[in-house]
Amino acid sequence: MTVGEMLAATVPMARTLNMEFLETTAERAVVRLPDQAAFHNHVGGPHAGAMFTLGDTVSGAVVLAAFGDQLTRAVPLVVKAEIGYKKLAMGVVTATATVGRPVADVVAELDGGGRPEIPVTVVFNREDGAVTGEMIIVWTLRLNT
């Protein structure tokens, strides 16, 4: 099962919003939010909540791709998130997430009994390439007790 299939199967909001997983590696994930009238805001673009969910989902995809081999001993959790809306998002929106720390450093911290924090940067783009928003989500890996 791919990371996208796993998220779609286990995270109901990803299914509800019909997100399309385009790329998922340990360094980067790309997810597209189709243009859907049911999730529009008052000006006809994707609702801010849908955009936030897109960012959360794409960041989770890259974290799972990077640290999926740690899931037998740790659970990934969001610590905090901040989003900035820069331009009006209309139509299809694509989100790209990148991990802000080397995977080996995070695993070494986890090996030492720590609870590493993993910053993930998300950039939202319209189909014309314009950046409509940016998001920083900090994840952690909590050891299973």
- Morphology: elongated
The helix tally amounts to 4
Q: Note the main sheet.
A: 6 strands, antiparallel
Order of strands in the sheet with most strands: 1-2-4-5-6-3
Quickly give the structural class: alpha+beta
Q: Class in CATH?
A: Alpha Beta
Organism: Streptomyces niveus
InterPro entries: DUF4442 (IPR027961), HotDog_dom_sf (IPR029069)
Protein name: DUF4442 domain-containing protein
Detailed description of the structure:
The protein is of the alpha+beta class and 145 residues long. The protein is built from four helices and six strands; from the N terminus they run H-H-E-E-H-E-E-H-E-E. It has one domain: Hotdog Thioesterase (Thiol Ester Dehydrase, Chain A, Roll), CATH 3.10.129.10. Helix content is 29%, strand content 37%. It has a six-stranded antiparallel beta sheet. It is elongated, with a radius of gyration of 15 Å. The two termini are 27 Å apart.
The gist of it:
By secondary structure, the chain is of the alpha+beta class. Helix content is 29%, strand content 37%.
Task: Write the SSE topology.
Elements: H1 3-10, H2 12-16, E1 20-24, E2 28-33, H3 48-67, E3 74-85, E4 93-99, H4 103-111, E5 117-126, E6 131-143
Antiparallel strand pairs: 1-2, 2-4, 3-6, 4-5, 5-6
Features:
alpha+beta, Thiol Ester Dehydrase, Chain A, 29% helix, 37% strand
